[in-house]
Each structure stands twice: as structure tokens, then as C-alpha cells.
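Lab notebook page, bench 4
Experiment: in silico fold of construct C2
Operator: M.H.
Input chain length: 220 residues
Purpose: comparison with the prior construct
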Amino acid sequence: MAVPMKLAAVLLCACALFATNGLAAEGDIWKHPLKDSGSTAIDSTFSPMTAHAVVRGDFKQTKTIAKLNREFVSFGKFVIANDKGILWDTEKPFASRLAISETRMVQENANGSRSEMNAKDNVVFAQIAKAIQSIFSGSTSKLQAGFHVFFDRRGNNWTVGLIPKEASVKKAIQSIELSGGTWLERIKLVDGSGSPLLYELLNPKPGSGLTAEEKALIEK
């Protein structure tokens, strides 16, 4: 989806996730641990996503609070820019922007106010970033450095399952699942309380370079 990225931190619930696209039904991915012999296959699967410097599209985010049995849905646009970072431009229900680069996270509200923090201070975004970085760079070794990796491919569709290796990270994140075909299409994270966060990446396509405003948010 993009050329190799050096993201150290980024951003990103269906009952039968991926089943309708011919992918493994939810839960099946954990039956397919990645073996050493599978590294070549997973790298070749990612290779089509490394050809573009910038990818743009729409996203739908669904956050489920398990204890409350409630869902919160938001919509917007995303920009993924090679080794610079990712921008989540939320449009509904409330406008905001979240830009995540290798070292920082910048939040911009509808009124133009901004706040900035070290990307490493948010475990959830950091781990999503690590996973996305590995997908975009086509590097299985980066995934294996921080996660136990599971992989299943059926035809042109694939699913990657990730379980954090570090105990401190596992307290915040139980698992991450990524799936797609030609493009990365879904990112599902289950947090330490068992609540899922689902990103659906819609209409992804190669884009032009970053605008001046986007550069100001994403670049270091």
C-alpha cells in the first residue's frame, strides 16, 4: 500500500469477520501460526502494498465497549504517507484529526486547537503502528520482533493475527487482526478489557503528495 515506512507509532466487530470475503472466520486465524517457511509467502502477500508513496481512502471506525454493550461509530478519511506517518481525518460525528509519525502524535480539534504527545505514550496506537508499518514495508521480521504471528491466505484474500509478546503490552492489547486482498482493508484490535476496535479502510487508492497542511501535521 505504501513504500517502506518507519512508523514507530500510529493510529487505527463483525460477528463473522472476513467470512463473506472468503477469509477465515473470526477465531480461525489463531489455528495458523506462522512458521519459518511461511515468511516468504507472507512477504510476497504484502509486496503489492509497497509500491505507492501515498495512499488515500475513507475509513469507518467502530469502537465497542464490552462492559456497556454499546458501539460508537465514526467516519472519515485516511492518508498513509511512506515513511512519514498516518493521518486519520475524522468527519463524523465530530470533526478532528489525528496524525501519527515515528516520534509523535498530534491531535487537532474542529476549533483548530492542537495537542501533541510522544507516540510511545500510547500503547494502542504504537502497536497498531508497528503492525501497519510491517504490512506497508513487506517485512515479516518487524512483525515477529514484537508479536506472535499467525497467517492464513485463501485465494487473493489474507488474514494476519498478532498477539503481543511483551507482558506490559498484553495488558493493553489482547490481539490485532489485519486482513485484505490487494489492499489492507480491515484492522481489528481487542484491548485488555476484551473490547474490540475495528477500522475498515474503504476505497483505498494511490494518492498525490501531501498537502502543506498534511505535512505540518504528519512530518516531524
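Observations: Residues 1-23 have pLDDT under 50 and may be disordered. Helices lie at 39-46, 123-137, 140-146, 167-170, 212-218.
Next step: discuss at group meeting.
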